[in-house]
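sry for the spam today, last one i promise. struct tokens for design, 114 residues
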């Protein structure tokens, strides 16, 4: 949970008892729980509002999808094998490309190719 181990959690609890006192600690815990519940409710409402504004094609929108890389991968490239991260990138075949000329030598001009 948040990268906090059991020993750190015990230390935080002891410091909280010392700072707030045993009589005010339950009230502080209730207030913190209420605040956390309100923040979660605000995030849920914001996410639902965003889904409603974007329309039915984004009904499965998650906050992680707002990362531009995830957004493009999920909504624009969905079902495309061309941009698969697991697929190796192919290199183009330049075997039929003209070869370089030695230094100082010029290619003959072909007026029909222009």
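last one done:
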């Amino acid at each position: 949970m948040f990268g906090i181990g059991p020993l750190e959690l015990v230390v935080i609890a002891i410091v909280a008892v010392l700072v707030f006192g045993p009589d005010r600690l339950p009230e502080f815990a209730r207030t913190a729980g209420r605040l956390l519940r309100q923040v979660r409710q605000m995030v849920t409402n914001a996410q639902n509002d965003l889904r409603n504004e974007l329309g039915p094609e984004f009904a499965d929108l998650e906050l992680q999808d707002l990362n531009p890389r995830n957004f493009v991968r999920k909504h624009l490239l969905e079902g495309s094998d061309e941009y698969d991260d697991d697929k190796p990138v192919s290199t183009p075949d330049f075997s039929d490309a003209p070869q370089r000329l030695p230094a100082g030598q010029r290619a003959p001009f072909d007026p029909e190719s222009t």
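The two ends are 68 Å apart (CA to CA). ok im logging off now
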